Amino acid sequence: MDIKTISSIFGVLGFFISIATFILTRVERRKKLLVELYVGDTSEYKEEYASYTDDDYAEVIKIRVTNIGGQAVVINPESFKFIAQDKALLVHHCDWFGLQKIPSPLNCGSSLEVAIHTDSFIDLLGFKNLDQYCNSKDAMKTVVPLYVSVKDHGGSKFFTKNFKYFYFVHSLERIT
What is the average per-residue pLDDT within 44-68? Predict the structure, then answer.
């Protein structure tokens, strides 16, 4: 092998390395949001619920959105949505907490939380029709998968399907 052949091999190898680096940096810099659900109470929303006292805290279902991507994301506050039992629960259907506190933009590594009353969640998504199965024999028929989504201002949708609501015991569970 002469020096010209070796330099040609290194040139081609360098070209492929530069293409791989370009692709990897694009993958690292894409928008990526982690959407999670958990149960909390209205104590974190005192200014939105100023008339409540410590004895009046109500249970809420919270959506936590964490930016784990490489870019800041501007969340559309009107795009939060629950879907269960072929019904959709949108922001304008009932009162939500935390919508006024959504940071714009949501920086890398930061998160936000919005919440909805558990009673509103149950009523508006039609869980009351599962009352007939609320016995020890048919209890597993009250496990309903949840789909939660949110959009950014560009229209990109971020969602999760990893949760279910167990209506018989009023429990929110992660599917693992």
Answer: 76
Q: In the numeric block, which tokens belong to residue 150?
A: 């949110």
pTM: 0.78
Range with lowest mean pLDDT among 13-27, 32-46, 47-61: 47-61
| Tokens of residue 119, six digits | 């009673």
The label of the residue with tokens 């530069």 reads: 18
Where do runs of H (alpha helix) occur along the chain? 3-28, 118-124
DSSP character at residue 71: S
Tokens of 141: 């028929």
Q: Letter for the amino acid at 97?
A: F
Which pair of tokens denotes residue 102?
């959504």
User: Which letter, b or e, does each residue of 108-143 get, where b requires 16 or more Cβ atoms within 10 Å of its Cβ?
Assistant: beeebbbbbbbebbbebbebeebeeeeeeeeeeebb
Looking at the DSSP bridge assignments, the partners of residue 59 are 41
> Two tokens at 73?
């994301």
Of 122, 141, 147, residue with least CA distance to 37: 147
Contacting residues for 147 by C-beta, under 8 A, at least 6 apart: 82, 83, 84, 159, 160, 161
pLDDT digits (tens, 9 = 90+) for 87-138: 999 999 888 988 888 888 999 899 999 999 888 888 888 888 888 888 878 8
